[in-house]
Amino acid sequence: MGVHRRHSEGFFVSSSTRRPASLRVRTRRLAAVALVSSSALLWVGCSASTSPTGSRPQPSSTSTPTEVAAVTAISPASGSVTGGTTLTISGTALDEVTSVTIGGVPATDVVVTDDGTVTAVAPAALDFQPADAAIVVAAGEAAVPQAEPLTYAYAVETPLDKQMSYALRHWDEYNSAEWGNLNSVGGDCANFVSQTLIQRGWVQNDTWFNRNAAATLADWSPAWGYVPAMHDWFASDNGPDVTRLTLDQRDQVKIGDIGMFDWNNNDIPDHVMLVSSVAVVDGVTKIGFASHNLDGPYRDLDVAITDEHPGGNAWFWSVPA
After folding, report:
1. Residue percentage of the chain with pLDDT more than 90
2. Is residue 182 a contact partner of residue 225, using CB atoms and an 8 Å limit?
3. DSSP H/E element including 61
């Protein structure tokens, strides 16, 4: 029987199972090779996942944050009550803007200049009255957020502004204290239009005047308060700088011009009104008037000469800007 000897690490090895010396040498060599190989693999693995400085490299990012659509400013912040001011709207991601409204009225000529700029032309103020109006910039049906609520200040700045603002205040509230009321002597329509022309900057003269009308109705000229005489003065060589336009030239009519009406179509005007609105609807120029005698702010031209006075005629006097 073999003799059991205690191994140096505390277990017994039978002499009968002791390996030959040559086998023990080969075993030690294989173990050494395995140790070296595993060390090499370990070193290769670290060098593949570690930067020269010992820190792990971070993935690079090439994406940029998406800009959020927003309106930040409008310039100028105020303009004429009769409209026409070109506005510049600034912000971010505005390239999808489709409309601009001021005080609920659509602006015209809306143009996206770039993703940070939109231009638009301001409409007239409601009834040509000075006021602060809210601005809404929209992309489709969605309003573009504003950094702060923006408003546009309508102001009376020009002679036309003064004329139209006055007319839309006094079409139903007669300024009798200053100009009298001529309804008792045939109608107040010419008196009303003349008042608006004073606001426009016209100056009374020996032919066209209303002096202290509140004190005496006799102190006014026919050219001021009587429609046929006003027409004759407009048409005379000594009259104001105005140009006659026919119904066929209605596309040349503008706010602040004068409309004269011949209800009987006998070439004698019966009524006069102030042009208060001009719009193209389905290719047709639609014109509205502010007036006394059947008082109204936007009386429709075509209704007046077809429904109200069938067979009637009208023409216009264009007032220089």
Report:
1. 74
2. yes
3. none
